[in-house]
Amino acid sequence: VTSTATETKTSQPIGIFDSGVGGLTVVRAVAAMLPSENLVYLGDTARVPYGSKSADTVVRYSVLSTRFLLSHDVKMVLVACNTASAFAMTELRATLPVPVLGAIEPGAAAALAATKTGRIGVLGTLGTVRSEAYPKALRALAGRDVEVMAKACPLLVPLADEGWIDDPVAEAIARRYLTELHAEAPSLDVLLLGCTHYPLLSRMLGRVASQIWAHPVTLVDSAGAMAAAAKAELQRLHLMHESASGTLSTYVTDDARIDEVGSRFLGRPLGSVTRVDL
Ligand code: DGL
């Protein structure tokens, strides 16, 4: 088989974008699961947060971010932001020339695999909850009756950014959100962490949840589910890169505090970061 100029090569990078640094939790999961892949990450740190913005704005910003990734010749795009996934997937799938994976469907599938009762709680940004993307995806994928209760937890994002992770203030805020959710959904058995930032808080959230519900509650995060979905899709398309150890190139639209905060989400030093304008 001769290779043509338009043929996708396995060595082409996977493009990953998020509203800011939170998507580095997805990079971390993808790098662990697909260590040979070259990754290009864009954090739209100049425009973060997306979670409190309107659908139109989030779609517009997502289009700009994916255009940047395409200019780096990516073979696949991962929308590592739950809010962008909630609002922009239809537009991105219809317009991008490469496969696009979002956070919602992988997260929903993982939550369905974990629930025994069919009662699922979803935590996310205001935008993600307002979009109803998770309840819709859960019902579409379930093929059975599921009860979904979503709760916006906007204060958890700045806590994770700040590194207040296993911290009494973070715990008090989580307790308030989860107590409110418990009142609506006393018998849920899965909490779906539908925001890039929440994996950092998962230990504390799990502890608080088990006190409030007083029965086992499984936490599922969309970052790990996205990495598994990306692997399955690359295998299906014969686009896995397997031979070498992968690289990570990181771009941001603003670089204030990026080393400190970025490394916290990536779980290791971030290395060099390039600031770009979209
Ligand atoms: N990345 C966003 C998400 O996963 C959280 C931060 C923001 O609001 O931009 O929904």
Please render the helix and strand layout as text.
Elements: E1 14-18, H1 24-33, E2 39-43, H2 55-70, E3 76-79, H3 82-95, E4 100-101, H4 104-114, E5 119-124, H5 126-131, H6 133-142, E6 147-152, H7 156-162, H8 168-184, E7 190-194, H9 202-213, E8 218-221, H10 222-236, E9 248-252, H11 258-266, E10 273-275
The structure holds D-glutamic acid.
Description:
The protein contains eleven helices and ten strands. The model has no long low-confidence stretch (mean pLDDT 95). The strands form two sheets. Strands 4-3-1-2-9-10 form a six-stranded parallel beta sheet, with helices on both faces. The chain has a four-stranded parallel beta sheet with strand order 6-5-7-8, with helices on both faces. The protein is an alpha/beta fold. The protein is globular and about 50 Å long. 46% of the residues lie in helices and 16% in strands. Helix 3 links the parallel strand 3 (76-79) and strand 4 (100-101). Bound molecules: D-glutamic acid. D-glutamic acid is lined by residues 18-20, 22, 48-51, 81-83, 125, 128, 157, 195-197.
Salient structural properties:
10 strands, 46% helix, alpha/beta, 16% strand, binds D-glutamic acid, 6-stranded parallel beta sheet, 278 residues, 11 helices, 4-stranded parallel beta sheet
Structural shape: globular
Query: In angstroms, what is the radius of gyration?
Result: 18 Å
Hetero groups bound?
Answer: D-glutamic acid
Could you give the order of strands across the largest sheet? Answer: 4-3-1-2-9-10
Mean pLDDT: 95
- Give the percentage of residues in beta strands: 15-25%
- Oligomer, anyone? single chain
Distance between the termini: 38 Å
Sheet with the most strands, sense and barrel status: 6 strands, parallel
The tally of helices reads 11
Helix content: 40-55%
What class would the helix/strand composition place it in? alpha/beta
Which spans of ≥5 residues are poorly predicted at pLDDT below 50?
Answer: none
Strand tally, please?
10
* SSE pattern, N- to C-terminal: EHEHEHEHEHHEHHEHEHEHE
